[in-house]
Amino acid sequence: MFNTRIKRNLAVLLACAALGSCKVPAITQRSENKTLPATYNGNGDTSGAAAINFRTFFPDKYLLALIDTAVKNNQELNITLQEIEISRNEIRLRKAALLPTVSLRGGIGVEKVGRYTSQGAGDASTEIKPGKEMPDPLMDYAVAAVANWEVDIWRKLRNAKKAAVTRYLASVEGRNFVVTGLIAEVANSYYELEALDNQLMFVQQNIELQKNALNVVKIQKEASRATELAVQKFQAEVLKTESLQFDIRQQITETENRINLLLGRYPQPIQRDTADFLEKVPTVVGTGLPAQLLTNRPDIRQAELELTAAKLDVQVARAEFLPSFGLSAAIGFQAFNPTYLVKLPASLLYSLAGDLVAPLVNRNGIKAEFNSANARQVQAMYNYERRILKAYLEVSTQLSGISNLQQSFDFRSKQVNALTQSISIANDLFKFARADYFEVLMTQRDALEAKLELVETRRQQLNAVVNVYRNLGGGWR
Fold it and tell me: What tens digit of pLDDT does each residue of 68-110 get?
């Protein structure tokens, strides 16, 4: 009667625990916003540059060779590849949790019970064979196969596996995003190197012009047609320009080393084609439609997959409130003497048990983990929306830059032509004392600055095209 009452009370307690554990908090519901404008600043087409392979997009053979080396040796990219391997192993781990665990156990033990205990008093008269008592102390030898399995009744383990698979796919997209950025960074640095080479060339040409003007002033001074002040002014201008070329040489070294770092190698000269840099026509970029960013941009796809994984994490955390059902089984041999282990069926042992476990006291800890998973899901949602907004703004900004830089380049080209002609005019006038030496100095200085700015504008144009290609999601295919 008493035992029946205990069993009844225990059953009621377990039922209450199970019912209490079924009261789980609600998941924060918020749908992500994927709305994008129909075009980029009123301009849009269906032929996006993102689908173009970088070997077709970049015609320079030296640049393509650098990109190939970077994709092969870049340390940051290789680190990302290891993250993919880590994600792949996480899938194996989550998959293993769905299957039963089977282990083989063997053990030896000894037990000495008190003589005046219930067990000791009962065992003292036991005989294994006629005339022999139970051994004291009692040895215990066992060899058994043990299996445990958590039955995934709430899809907790399967959702955890799906989250691991989704994060693996996100890591692959992360690798693609690194490739896209790496290609763009190599191309931008390559064009910067070409621009510096051309700026150095213009500086050296200007030094020759200034030296010629300096010789003319010296001759005029000897003929009392110019003063020592004019000579010193021209001399100072030559020295200033000569120092400028060493600044540019240092920038060339720094840019070469930056490219070598991207290529994962120690410093060495970078092969490049610097001829006709100003004649390079920037590639015409087809933007496609803004909605194509959702499929072309690896970082957006990565954020979307991370959002999906975060939602699955919430489902896993929610399932922790529910009872878990487990099965355990064992089969083997057990005896107090090794010689008895093979005596069947007396030494055979086996067990089969099932248990239902529901959280009762530690619900606050589970609730805290659920709230954290819920917050990470909302965080991932905002990150996904931010990636979309950032991608659109990046493309829009670069497209505007391409248009404005082209107009700026046209005007600067005309400025350079005008100043180049004015140098000859100023020199001729100065020879016949119809122009002051200061006008000659300022004309040469303005012409050099205009040429340097023209080269910089062309570099910015080429970089803007590269950046649009990257921002559209090109390069990783």
Answer: 999 999 999 999 999 999 999 999 999 998 999 999 998 898 8
d(CA 176, CA 475): 9
What is the amino acid identity at position 294?
L
Main-chain phi, psi angles of 469, to 5 degrees: -60, -45
Where do the CATH 2.20.200.10 domains begin and end in the chain? 100-113+134-151+324-357
Rounded Cα distance between 366 and 359, Å, is: 9
42: left (phi over 0), alpha (psi -120 to 50) or beta: left
The three-class DSSP label of residue 289 is coil
What are 226-241's pLDDT values in tens digits? 888 888 988 998 999 9
Using CA atoms, how far residue 130 sits from 125, 127, 140, 294, in Å, is 11, 6, 22, 85
The partner residues of 428 in beta bridges, in order of sequence, read none
Residues of the chain with CATH 1.20.1600.10: 30-97+154-323+369-471
The DSSP secondary-structure symbol of 27 reads: P
- Contact between 448 and 244 (Cβ < 8 Å): no
- Top-level class of domain 30-97+154-323+369-471: mainly alpha
DSSP lists the bridge partners of residue 147 as: 102, 329
The CATH code that applies to domain 100-113+134-151+324-357 is 2.20.200.10
At 434, is the secondary structure helix, strand, or coil? Answer: coil
SS3 assignment for 308-339: HHHHHHHHHHHHCCCCEEEEEEEEEEEECCHH
pTM as predicted: 0.83
